[in-house]
Write a structure and sequence with these properties.
The complex is a heterodimer of chains A (234) and B (251). With 234 residues, chain A is mainly alpha-helical. Chain A is 77% helix and 0% strand. The longest helix of chain A has 33 residues. In chain B, helix 5 links the parallel strand 7 and strand 8. The chains are: A mainly alpha (234), B alpha/beta (251).
Chain lengths: 234, 251
C-alpha cells in the first residue's frame, strides 16, 4: 500500500494511526495527555492574557507608564520566547510551574501588543464625547477605550491562544510525564511514529477548536462593526 | 430651565497664533444664537472653550453665575459628526451622558429624548444601521438627555444634504421647544442662521472678534420663504463681504 516514498515505519498509513489512537485511549493515556496539555494551555493562557490585558490597558492609557514599561517589554519581546525554557526550568524546577509560565509568556505578547496598538488607535473624537460629559480616567477607559479596542484585543487573544498551543508542546518536551508534547518525545525515543501522529492530530484538532471558539466569541462581541467582515445589516 | 451664557474678553492662542482676540458675547436664557464667520476664524475653538474641552484661555466664560473651568453638566455639545459609539445601541448611546445609565429613570429620560427627535422606533438599532441624518439626530438626543442649560452645536448639519438639513433644523427647533436650552449654533449656512436664530453673530477673520450682530425679528414658527429672512440673508452676506474687504484694504 502507498507510493513507496516512505517506509511504513516512517509514515504509517491512517488505519495504523487510528489503531494506535484507540490503543492509547483504551489504556487511558490519550485522555490523560489531552487533559494535561489542555489544562496547561487554559491556565497559562488565562494568566498570560490577564496580565497582558491589565498591563496593556495601563500602558495604552497612560503615557508615563508607557515610558516606564515599553522599552523593557520590547527588549524582552525580541528574545525568542522558546529561549526562556532552560531558564524557567532552572528557576522553577521541572514541575507544572515552568510549563505554565512558558505558556503564559507565549500568550502574553500577542495579547499585549495588539491591545496596546488598539488603544493607541482609538478615535480621539470618541474620547472627546466622553470628556464633554465630564467623564475621566477610569470611566473613559472602561466605557470608551476598552470597547473601542475590543476588535484588536480579540485578535490578540486569538493569536495568543495559537501561541499557547505552540508553547505548551515545547514546555512538555522537558521533564514531563504526561501531555501531548511528552507523547511526542516519548514516541521518538521508542520510534513509534504512529503515536507521534496521534499526538499531532490531537494538537491540530485542539488548536482548531480553540480558534473556532474565539472566533465565535468575536462574532458575537463585534456584531456592531461595520466592516467587510461583518454581514450587511438588513 | 436654562441659563445665560456670558463670554467676556476671551483670548486664545495656539502657540504664536492668536485664534480668538478679545471676544465678548452674551446669550440670554433660552435664546438661539447663530455664529457665522469665515472658515478657520476660531468658531469651533470658541465652542470647545465654552464646552470646557480646552481650559487654556484668558478672559471669562460664565454659564449662569458659574465660571467655566472644565466640562460642565450644564453645557452640552453636538459635534460636526455624530460621533456615536458604534458598539452601543441607539438607546445606550443616548443614555451615555446620564450619571445613571440604567434603570427606569434613565429609560424614561432616553425615551423622551428619542421622542423629541422622532427616533423612538430605532431605540434598539446599532449606529451602523442609521443614515447620516438619523445618526446626527441621535447625537442631538444624546446631548439633550442630560437637559443641558446651554447647548452648543458645531456645524451640526454640515455633512448632510439640503433636504435632510432642513428636516434636522426643524427637529432641532422641536427639541429646543421641548427642552428650552440656551442654544449657540456655529454654522456657515446663512439660510440656517436666519431660519433658526434670534440673533446672528458675525465673527471676523482670525483672531475671532464679534464684528456685527444681526437680530432676526420674525416670530417662530418661521416660513423659509419669508422675504424678511431673504433680506436678512443678503444683509449678512454684505456684512461678510464688507468685513473681508476692510481686511483687504488695511492689509
Amino acid at each position: 500500500m502507498g507510493l513507496g516514498v516512505f517506509e511504513a515505519y516512517q509514515l504509517p498509513p491512517p488505519p495504523v494511526v487510528l489503531d494506535a489512537a484507540i490503543g492509547l485511549w483504551r489504556r487511558g493515556l490519550l485522555q490523560q495527555d489531552i487533559f494535561a496539555t489542555a489544562a496547561r494551555v487554559v491556565e497559562g493562557f488565562g494568566i498570560g492574557a490577564a496580565v497582558a490585558i491589565v498591563l496593556g490597558t495601563i500602558v495604552g492609557v497612560t503615557r508615563r507608564s508607557e515610558e516606564f514599561f515599553e522599552p523593557t517589554l520590547q527588549a524582552l519581546r525580541t528574545v525568542p520566547t522558546l529561549a526562556w525554557a532552560p531558564l524557567l526550568l532552572l528557576w522553577l524546577g521541572i514541575d507544572e510551574a515552568p510549563k505554565i509560565t512558558l505558556v503564559a509568556i507565549g500568550a502574553f505578547f500577542p495579547v499585549y501588543v495588539n491591545l496596546v496598538a488598539g488603544i493607541k488607535g482609538v478615535d480621539r473624537k470618541l474620547v472627546e464625547v466622553a470628556r464633554v460629559f465630564d467623564l475621566r480616567g477610569v470611566d473613559i477607559a472602561r466605557l470608551v477605550v476598552l470597547p473601542a479596542s475590543l476588535p484588536d484585543l480579540l485578535t490578540g487573544l486569538r493569536l495568543g491562544a495559537t501561541q499557547a498551543w505552540l508553547f505548551v508542546v515545547v514546555a512538555e518536551f522537558f521533564g514531563s510525564s504526561r501531555g501531548l508534547g511528552f507523547r511526542l518525545t516519548d514516541s521518538l525515543q521508542s520510534s513509534r511514529v504512529d503515536l507521534m501522529l496521534v499526538a499531532l492530530v490531537c494538537l491540530a484538532a485542539l488548536g482548531k477548536v480553540t480558534d473556532m471558539l474565539i472566533r465565535a466569541a468575536e462574532r458575537r462581541a463585534l456584531r456592531w462593526r461595520d466592516t467587510l467582515g461583518e454581514p450587511r445589516p438588513a | 430651565m436654562s441659563r445665560r451664557l456670558a463670554v467676556a474678553e476671551l483670548r486664545k492662542r495656539y502657540g504664536d497664533l492668536p485664534v480668538i482676540g478679545g471676544l465678548d458675547l452674551e446669550v440670554a436664557p433660552s435664546e438661539i444664537v447663530a455664529i457665522v464667520g469665515p472658515s478657520g476664524c476660531g468658531k469651533s475653538t470658541l465652542l470647545r472653550l465654552v464646552a470646557g474641552l480646552d481650559t487654556h484661555y484668558r478672559g471669562e466664560i460664565r454659564v449662569g453665575d458659574e465660571l467655566v473651568c472644565g466640562p460642565h453638566p450644564a453645557v452640552g455639545l453636538v459635534f460636526q459628526e455624530p460621533r456615536l459609539f458604534p458598539w452601543l445601541s441607539v438607546a445606550d448611546n443616548v443614555a451615555f451622558g446620564l450619571s445613571e445609565r440604567r434603570g427606569p429613570h434613565a429609560r424614561a429620560l432616553v425615551s423622551d429624548a428619542l421622542a423629541a427627535v422622532e427616533l423612538t422606533a430605532f431605540a434598539g438599532a446599532l449606529p451602523k444601521e442609521l443614515s447620516g441624518g438619523m445618526a446626527q439626530r441621535v447625537a442631538l438626543a444624546r446631548a439633550l438627555v442630560t437637559e443641558p442649560q446651554v447647548l452648543l452645536l458645531d456645524e451640526p448639519f454640515n455633512a448632510l444634504d439640503a433636504f435632510t438639513r432642513m428636516r434636522l433644523q426643524d427637529h432641532l427647533l422641536a427639541a429646543w421647544t421641548r427642552y428650552r436650552p440656551t442654544l449657540v449654533l456655529v454654522t456657515h449656512d446663512l439660510d440656517e442662521a436666519v431660519y433658526l436664530a434670534d440673533r446672528v453673530i458675525l465673527l471676523g477673520e482670525r483672531p475671532a472678534r464679534v464684528v456685527d450682530v444681526i437680530p432676526v425679528a420674525p416670530a417662530r414658527p418661521r416660513d423659509r420663504r419669508d422675504a424678511t429672512l431673504a433680506a436678512l440673508r443678503v444683509a449678512l452676506l454684505e456684512a461678510l463681504h464688507l468685513e473681508r474687504d476692510s481686511r483687504l484694504v488695511t492689509a
